[in-house]
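User:
Care to share a sequence and structure tokens?

Assistant:
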Amino acid sequence: MNTSNASNDVLGNLRRRAARPAIRLLLIAALAALIAVVPLGLMLKRSASDYAAEMAMLAEIQRVPAWLVVVSKACAALYAPMVMGPVMAVLVGVVLWRSRNVRAAVCVALVAATPLAMTFAVKLIVRRNRPATPLGVLAHDPSFPSGHVATAVALSALLFAIMRMRANVRKVHGVELSPRGQWVLSGFAAVLLVLPVVVAASRLILGVHYPTDVLTSLVLCSLISASAYCLFAPENAMQIA
């Protein structure tokens, strides 16, 4: 009986949140992206004109200074799913340990894991070959959409979710940050916004993805992560350190 009541409460809460106009628009956009992503990938895979246009873009993008190639290789190593996956799992564990709130931990786990799961599912369905570049032909996993960019979005979204939940708790308890603290948080948030774009650019500089691969990951994963947070974030999730 208690389990049934808890399930009804969760479903009722999800329905109430999904009914809010802003969240409803977000969910519609995320659903539309999910519906369109596989047909889009298959179309790009089969289109010779798109292939030629994107290869021409890559040829121009790869005319960059050597130091940018070095930075791009560092991004490739750092944001590899096999590297950042365990890091994000540890962050979820820290949220659970610090907050003692299962819902908070589940929320941040969904924010990070859902876009990654969707990305790799689409990869397996579409199976677009990598670009015919020196590094692209060495990568044997499918190209569309970009897993590295999905990982970057997932990490940034996870950290955003933690920041947002902590801000909610501060608001409830009437705790205000100092001007310096607000400046630091704003700067950190700006960095989190920029990092996925930097990772996306690094994949093009290395020639291991088409522009549409990274753009699709940026849009799709951002919509999925934002939807997961809006649906599942608890109101008072975390204690203040």
Observations:
- The radius of gyration is 20 Å.
- The chain is about 80% helix and 0% strand.
- Residues 41 and 126 are 6 Å apart (CA to CA).
- The chain has a mean pLDDT of 87.
